[in-house]
């Protein structure tokens, strides 16, 4: 059986753009042409490939063909570039899933390194690090920064290192809520900042203190990495902040750790489909180089006394990069 490339491109565009109308605009054809191509492909395959929802979603069978279409487009562009015939057509954009904090800290360096070697761009999907692998499995992306160390079937995996998160708060907040220590009672009553419903870092830290005791503190939901830090600095609550984003604030005493060893290291991995693509090899090399910033500090300072917290005094965290040591 032979598959028509235009039909495969239409399927991939519908899934990528989320609707037949936006897919038509991306492909510079009419929505009816996109619809006809999908119907033809479904008829030839004898199965439903895309759910006509908002946004449009691929079926399990559709995901396999979307992945094929994305990989074929990448390899086709590489072949045309090698033959000197690719300049008259737009380069494909690789869909990559990256966790929020990596995107806000070290991953843009990887993108910059990659841009120096190719005209192919990146379509970055921001997602929680524990959920990026799902996008890789269902064919939504070609590669992902993830916490999953076991390779997704058909993928290669590279250990990147560990992102260090530190339980932090403003000095005045610490003096108000944790002057007598980080106890179960204090954690139960102290407001906490949580990125979204997928963010479990704060609960993991609290479990170290609370054990199996239910934890239902006052919660601020703040779905922005930079606003997350700003809200911590403003004293709205305590939270687990990525060390690269709060190192300066810890250095100058605007933030303090909740207690000694108030950190949690999250291992990160780079997984990508085995495409045999030079473009993917270049991106992988750029990611691995940029991930060298994930270096474990020697130590994180102990929490201050109530007096020191009020004065904002804090010793400097241990020297090192912007995260934690490579795995």
Automatic annotation (TrEMBL):
Belongs to the LysR transcriptional regulatory family. Residues 302-317 have a biased composition (Low complexity). The keyword DNA-binding applies. Residues 302-327 are annotated as: Disordered. Keywords: DNA-binding, Transcription, Transcription regulation. InterPro entries: ArgP, LTTR, LysR_HTH_N, LysR_subst-bd, WH-like_DNA-bd_sf, WH_DNA-bd_sf. The keyword Isomerase does not apply. Residues 1-59 form the HTH lysR-type domain. Residues 318-327 have a biased composition (Gly residues). This is LysR family transcriptional regulator ArgP. Transmembrane segments: none annotated. It holds the Pfam family HTH_1.
